[in-house]
Model the fold of this input.
Amino acid sequence: MLMDILSNPVLLIAVPLLFAFLAVFLKKIDKVLLGAAAVLNIAGAALIAVLYEGTKIIELGGFKPPFGISLVLDDYSLIGIVLLNVIFGLILLLSGKHVQKYAMVLLVALAALNGVILTGDLFNLFVFLEIAAIAAYIFTAMDKGFKHSFNYLVVGTLGSGLFLFGIILLYNVFGSLNMFDIQEKLSQANPADSGALALPLVMMFTGLSVEAKLMPFGGWVKGVLKKANTLVGALIVSAYALAVLLALGRVISTVFFMSGAVRIAFTAVAAGTLVFAEASAFSRKNLREVLLFSSVAQSGLVALLFLYGLTVPAVLVLAGNVVSKLVLFTVAGKFAHDLGTDDIGDLKGVFIKFPLVGVGFTASAMSLIGLPLFFGFVAKINALVGLFDAGNVWLPIIILVMAVVEGAYFVRILTTLWNTGDEGELSSKDKLKTFKLNGSAVVGAVSVAVAVVIVALGVLPILNIKQFFSVDFMTFIGQLLGGM
Amino acid sequence: MIQYFAIALMLVGVYGLLTQKNVIKLIVSLNIFEVGLNVFIISVGYVSGGIAPILTSQNNTSALLYVDPLPQALVLTSIVIGVGVTALALAFARRLHNQYGTYNLDEMEGE
Amino acid sequence: MKQAVSIVLVLLLGAFIFTALYFADSSPLQFKPYGDADLSGRVSQGYVDKNVTADAASEEPAAVVYGETKNAETGSANIVTSVVVNYRSFDTLGEVTVLFVAALGVGLLLSGKRRRQEAAFQPSFILKHGVRIVLGIMVIFGVYLFTHGHLTPGGGFSGGSIIAAAVLLLYVSDNAFKAKVKAFKIAEGVAGSLYVVAGLLGLALGGYFLYNFLPTGVVGDLLSAGIVPIVYILIGLKVGSEISGVIAGFATEEEAL
Done:
């Protein structure tokens, strides 16, 4: 009984929320509460994972779906909450000093992101997305970039309004807000009627694409992240990206009943995002700008995979991406904060001075490109095989070309950052001595630990060739997790 | 009819968001959009001849024809979210005005 | 130029919405026009009949009768309230959180050394004394709205806003007035925590988060509907103190540098 209560996923939402409300009058220990909530959530997610026995619907208030709101714990959301809470904990560990007065906002954000991943109800998803977005408007203003945050607020509010418009149109047709109830009703529908749902789906996709950073609606991300500190940057590119894209995938896989034209339009948006963002990343000189465009590109790739029903590869690509981005953005933000610059040219040879950080950064970048022996390779090969199996030729080609572009700019970054210059050119080495990185040991240790995990997850599947091309969710994940 | 009006309001709001450069006018446009959306949400719950979904000593049984209570509950949430966002946006407007001395986004220099 | 492009874009969007909603071929998945909604095809019929937890296989449910039906599912005579605070209470918790975090953001953005912002006008005699008369009535009306939220139109959000409006009147009528923001903060924190605690109690006692663990009484009684009125009172206090806090934030300005 007690175990049942403790392993109820709703606690992942309720506990941070309770702590946020408590922190209002326990202001002195708000950071302690934030840390405690993060640790409790990691423990809770671990407990849920250990006791997991297949799909479970958690009814709230005791009302069965579709009447009440229900949370859904299945393979998909289980991976989501475990990853999310671990990532959130790592972000706090790495960037705790930036929390300042924002502990309560972060507590609310933690609760909302867990809700976004877990909920099985469309309107509830809207509410949690809105909470998460409002928290993001606030903490992106941390660096006094009010103009960009205001821009984000306007675009984000319009986007969530359109999302809500789409939800209410679906409610008008189906009389229900529960995703799985709608999915069931759709399973009996005639595909010829799918054109009637074009408007709600376009509205929902447009609304979600603002938060999911798909172009052209994700333009806010550039202004917000260009100068972001490690905390804000890592939260947006890893924790938020994970939760929002998982929600997008959930919505697509349950209620998106697409006609041909609608599918082509959505695919064009996702593929266009991928191409445009990789090209932008290639042309940038600042580490954080490169990373933010790379993050946008990955959103496009993941959305593309979800649209083609390739849920497993999409989750793998997404997981690999957010873990890598966490390390990359933290390191980039750290350089910008402590060394005063994140221009790639100015940081020449910086990894010689901080080899631990360098190893972690390199492994994460290589995984992101999708080189063999890294986790990103496993993810990308699954995606490509899945697309080929679906009879697609030109999408895999786009993805491969973009991977080459991505590889080109990351190799350029890595060679610069590892390079001290020619023999005898002492000036750049002398300059290195003035570099001082606060807490580089923690960042180094964490990034190396992440690198080890990435490599382990990349090598293990190769040892077992038979499972390598497996698209069966649980065996694959079980094998990956079993290797840890 | 009321739905045409609601959609028109939403479109007016979108037009405002596309053309306005003044921070306050942008917030007003957002609010117009939200009002249109909220009216539309309520209209989706209307049932011809239905009465307000409250049991009273006159309408004392659930067997009567009521309008749909769910959109009304949803619109409450939507309104409250709108209030929160508007308050936050106005706080941003105030900070922007303190920083740049203007409400016009084009006149705000630098980062 | 820009305006012309915007007009074209908006008209295109409008044309898309209108054709998709009102001028498309009929199909089972087509938008149902205004007034054509059929409750029996929607989840809402369950809310009206208060038989959501019953088995789908059971017979036609007995109608809920005002003043007679005992221990009905939610026991709230106001069906919208039963949806807001019981069937979809989790949304409402989220909604309260939205206000909470927005008020927090306003506080963070407008922080710094504060002094009261002077209004552009001097409050007149009528305003000053009128407010004193109206104030008590407003607060009582606000409290009435959220304590009777399960019986009559109204509830925590409207009641709380009316109380906050009373605070706004105080600010307007007196240029020197400064509310005790700390008290708002404490009320807000306590009410919010108690809402979550009520949910957790439901989880411990009934096995479901936000479970209505109190007897629901006779539909139409003041003491009915289990935790619904309690939660609505908490929401009323929370919304009232939050919006008051936002007003207090806006009514003060940064100390001139």
